[in-house]
Amino acid sequence: MNTEKLEMGIFIGAIIIVSLIFLYMLDKFFYLDMTKLGWKRARKNFPNVAAKLGLEHFSPKLKIKIGEIKGEFNGYQIRIRPDYRAIIEVTQIGSLRFRSSRLMLSTSKSQIISPPEGVRQFDSGNSKFDTFFQTRYALPDLAKLLTDDASKLVCLEQFRKTWKNKLRLVEVGDSGIRCSLKYGLSTYIPAETLEKILPDLCELAKIFQSLLDAGNSENTNRV
Q: Residue 146 has what pLDDT?
């Protein structure tokens, strides 16, 4: 009888341990932060990382929020909103909002019913690029410039390899880049992640900006 109880206790204990390990791995793999320890740490470190990056932290009105970071970094206008889908926006200085009229790329698949005049869907010919950016619209000249310059695709592949597991969404438009990170059920952005991804996003923005500038030059020369 005692042996049966002992065996049952060991069995139940093993189930509990396996369940806890499973929940831990699930939490880590999907960045769910079920304990909210990551969120609390991010909220505490948010003002410090803003100062370290030379940006300004705007305190939240509610204690259940983290706030925002704004300013200029590496020649771009930055807006970071962890409370709203953990979004980071890297746009041209002076841009009032993120916009897409000549170039529209997104890692989510969507059919644009009425794209801007002249803008068309395109395939880059690079399977990794086309898999990453499931939505691809651009003016024909811009699409050609992108597909003809393999170095741009290589740089993007490096970014994809580094960050793909942490990215919920990436969008590229005329004014810059907007991305959403998948940290926590109550969204947040870890300070160490922000320090590393922000320079990478700025470099990526420069690549696409050079593409847009080259497209402008070609159009000017034709005129």
A: 83
